[in-house]
Write a structure and sequence with these properties.
The protein is of the alpha/beta class. The protein has two domains: 125 residues, Rossmann fold; 191 residues, NAD(P)-binding Rossmann-like Domain (Rossmann fold, 3-Layer(aba) Sandwich). 33% of the residues lie in helices and 15% in strands. It has 13 helices and 13 strands. The chain has a seven-stranded parallel β-sheet with strand order 8-7-6-9-10-11-12, with helices on both faces. Helix 10 links the parallel strand 9 and strand 10. Helix 1 runs parallel beside helix 13. The longest helix is centred in the last third of the chain and has 21 residues. The protein is elongated, with a radius of gyration of 22 Å.
């Protein structure tokens, strides 16, 4: 005899197949309504009104959908970022929201470190130029090329992932600066970095700048033309956080002038990326940029293990909400 489901949980869309792992975690008393679309306009009002909870992958969630979440006890995003979620509309509707920060920390930190070390050693430039070497070989060393132990790495955002990056930087001998006004005094002593009270002080000293902060009113356009002009000449920038942190026009100018040595980016403001002179030069492997700009398709978070962890953790958050009325990892609207 089949037991009638006690709860209905909606899943807007999914990057990886059907929501079988979620069903396993949520249990037999949960009916999953899989919308299978990132287009919010396609979400049926009648289906939304049935939901006791909603899980969101890549879809936007705005007032038009939230107005129909009459029974919904909570909304959970599979990922960490929530720029596409209207938190104010959810708050007005009395629906709590949570993200999913406890997955993929190792993957993003490893990805950032791979970018840092590869750009610091100028590996991609060597690879590009070595294709043309015919009559000589080993003498073609790129300069300048420094050791890691006299270099300074600046970590902007020393939360879960930033801390994991700090721990990975230490064995290579980098001097490590950190900027994060959200961390309490003494955090730097516990983790092992030098705290910068001002972001500009970090920018003036760092040979490598790696970004690990959310996109919000304080951080959007963090690296604009003015800031990039004030960084140390020859700096490397790595961004595995949010595309909105870097102004692409300013980044192009800094790379063209040579003021910025190189950049590696995993997140862009528009994805897939549209037309932009910097991106066109990157696609064409133009000689001035070759090996100096590395772009990966917003997959720093990914490993086979992390993909499973992400899905299980998000579903577990919903299961706890349904059982206990408690939403872990809850995000509140700033006043």
């Amino acid at each position: 005899m089949t037991t009638k489901a006690k709860f209905v949980v909606g899943i807007t869309d999914h990057m990886i197949g059907t929501p079988d792992l979620e069903a396993e975690v949520l249990g037999d008393d949960v009916e999953i309504d899989f919308f299978g679309s990132t287009d919010e306009a396609q979400f049926s009002a009648a289906r939304l009104e049935r939901l006791d909870a909603l899980m969101v992958w890549g879809a936007r969630l705005g007032p038009q959908s939230i107005a129909h979440l009459k029974r919904c006890k909570g909304v959970v995003r599979y990922g960490v970022g929530y720029e596409k979620i209207d938190l104010e509309a959810l708050a007005k509707a009395g629906i709590p929201f949570a993200n999913n920060p406890d997955y993929g920390t190792e993957e993003v930190a490893d990805h950032a470190m791979a970018m840092i070390l590869s750009l610091h050693r100028r590996l991609w430039e060597h690879d590009h130029k070595a294709r043309g070497y015919r009559n000589n070989w080993q003498v073609n060393s790129l300069k300048p090329l420094s050791r890691s132990n006299p270099a300074t790495a600046g970590v902007v955002g020393v939360g879960r992932i930033g801390t994991a990056v700090v721990n990975r930087l230490k064995p290579f001998g980098f001097r490590i600066l950190g900027y994060d006004p959200g961390q309490p005094p003494g955090h730097e002593k516990a983790i092992g970095y030098e705290r910068c009270e001002r972001l500009d002080a970090l920018f003036a000293s760092a040979d490598v700048i790696t970004l690990h902060c959310p996109a919000n009113a304080q951080t959007r356009g963090l690296l604009n033309a003015d800031r990039l002009a004030r960084i140390k000449p020859g700096t490397i920038i790595v961004n595995t956080a949010r595309g909105e942190l870097i102004d692409l026009d300013a980044l192009e100018a800094a790379l063209r002038s040579g003021h910025l040595a190189a950049a590696a980016i995993d997140a862009l403001q528009q994805e897939p990326p549209g037309d932009h002179p910097l991106l066109s030069a990157w696609r064409a492997r133009e000689a001035w940029l070759a090996g100096r700009l590395v772009i990966t398709p917003h997959n720093a978070f990914y490993s086979d293990h992390a993909a499973i962890e992400m899905r299980r953790n998000a579903a577990r958050t919903i299961r706890i909400l349904l059982d206990e009325g408690r939403l872990r990892n809850q995000i509140t609207v700033s006043s």
